[in-house]
Give the backbone structure.
Amino acid sequence: MQHAQKKEVIRKLKAKKVKFEHGLSDQEIQEIELKFDIRFPPDLRDFLQTELPISDNFVNWRLGLHSKDEEAYIRQRIDWSFGSMVFDIEHNAFWMEEWGEKSDNINKNIMVAETYYETYPKMIPIFSHRYIPSGPYETGNPVFSIYQTDIIYYGYDLAHYFAHEFRFELSDKFPTIDEPRYIEFWGDIQS
């Protein structure tokens, strides 16, 4: 997002009662990425460095650096996408063909799924169960809603995601996006 676009999105989010703190510093970004073993895509990083949303259901990354409880909560949110997949492997017969033949041993299946999962773009929580992939490391990654393996696009990029989630219109400063960027695995299991 360009500067004017970020300001518009933040202004509209504030109108929807989203609370913000001053943006994250370069040092905080580095500490967060190291601590949580993530890498913010450039547009999310830039957004979080402009102003940091801290309302309920947003990830309070700054607080995660200083509070053990918040750190545990953020780790739980980061692990949500895999944990949700495991639930569906255990209870709903979820299995990807590319993982090979499914075993009768549930623990073996989970280990196979985890091996593959580690190769997929890591999902970074934004708000509630909405996630943006860390890769490719480019601006314009789509945002997914992830609930178990019920996975849908919730925005074709970060700005359109916020507009969809918080029900506001974007001005003509924003390009129209007709389809999302393909994201390995996550784009394949879309509902």
